[in-house]
Amino acid sequence: EVQLQASGGGLVQAGGSLRLSCVASGFTFDDHAIGWFRQAPGKEREGVSCISANNGKIYYGDSVKGRFTISSDNAKNTVYLQMNNLKPEDTAVYYCTRLPRGRSDSWGQGTQVTVSS
């Protein structure tokens, strides 16, 4: 069973930091990229960042460049998203997923990040 468990969200003040974790199981971690997505109320799900376990190539959405850092620990099948200088507009439910997604893959419940002004 493919599982990707996101955790580490919480309530922080603007300018604060959080580190999200995504623990993966049930598939060959090294054969996939792992991506972070987020969805704010009333908005479409948005790609935040992605890292390839195979070659280390990294992508960031424009709104988070310079503030967020993605990393992976392949031995632990875990991807992290370090979020610094958080802004209220970062408030969303954050999800992690393997890329490409399989037909049976679930987004799960994600982890809530709330940034207060």
Give a verbal description of the structure.
With 117 residues, the protein is mainly beta. It is 0% helix and 51% strand. The protein has a six-stranded mixed sheet, with no helix packed on it. The protein has a four-stranded antiparallel sheet with strand order 1-3-8-7, with no helix packed on it. A hairpin with a 4-residue loop joins strand 7 and strand 8. It is globular and about 40 Å long. The model has no long low-confidence stretch (mean pLDDT 95).
Radius of gyration: 13 Å
Low-pLDDT sequence parts: none
The portion of residues forming beta strands comes to over 45%
Q: Could you spell the SSE succession in H and E letters?
A: EEEEEEEEEE
Q: Cα distance, first to last residue?
A: 40 Å
The structure class reads: mainly beta
Number of strands: 10
Q: Summarize the biggest pleated sheet.
A: 6 strands, mixed
Number of helices: 0
